[in-house]
Amino acid sequence: MDGSSGWHTNDEVSHFEMERLALLHVIEAPSLEYRDKVLDDWVRWGYPPGSISHRALPYQVLGHALVLDWMWDDLSIGQRGDLGEIVVTMMDDLLSNAPHDLGVFEVTVGPVVQ
After folding, report:
1. b/e string for 16-25 if b means 16 or more Cβ within 10 A?
2. Using CA atoms, how far apart are residues 100 and 95, in angstroms rounded to an integer?
3. What whole-number distance in Å separates Cα of residue 39 and Cα of residue 83?
4. How far apart are CA 13 and CA 43, in angstroms?
5. Number of H helices, E strands in the chain
6. pTM for this one?
7. What percent of the chain shows pLDDT beyond 90?
8. Helix axis angle, 77-102 relative to 57-70, nearest 10°?
9. Would you kindly state where each structural domain of the chain is located, as residue ranges?
10. What DSSP line would sit under 44-59, residue for residue?
11. Angle of CA points 50, 15, 79, to nearest 5°
């Protein structure tokens, strides 16, 4: 997962691969071949919370968010909603892992600077 390309022994697709195919989909105006590869093989539909290592999770969030953004016009309404839910669930996992990764921290909000 931490490599720049290729399938890995943990069966995770590198986020770079998702990003590249999503970008190629946009450039090729649009290429359904790239879209279908990402949606059929690499998107984690029905993501079970806690199923990705906390070290790999930020990269999966990035890849899924870029797919959602860059392929938005060529996704069905249902796919958009499902993919958005996956990203939110992954972000919830990231936040639950934050004390483990960063230690205990407190969020404070200061005045808005204009």
Report:
1. ebbbbbbebb
2. 10
3. 10
4. 9
5. 4, 0
6. 0.69
7. 12
8. 150
9. 15-98
10. -TTPPTT-S-TTTHHH
11. 70
Chain centroid, CA 11 distance in Å: 15
- 112: how many CB neighbours lie within 10 A of its CB? 5
Residue 90 contacts residue 57 (beta carbons within 8 Å): yes
What pLDDT digit, counting tens, does each position of 69-98 carry? 888 988 999 999 999 999 999 888 888 876
Tokens (6 digits) for 1: 């997962």
Cβ neighbors of 16 (< 8 A, separation 6 or more) are 4, 5, 63
Q: Which two tokens stand for residue 89?
A: 């669930």
- 3-state helix vs strand vs coil in the chain, percent to 5: 60, 0, 40
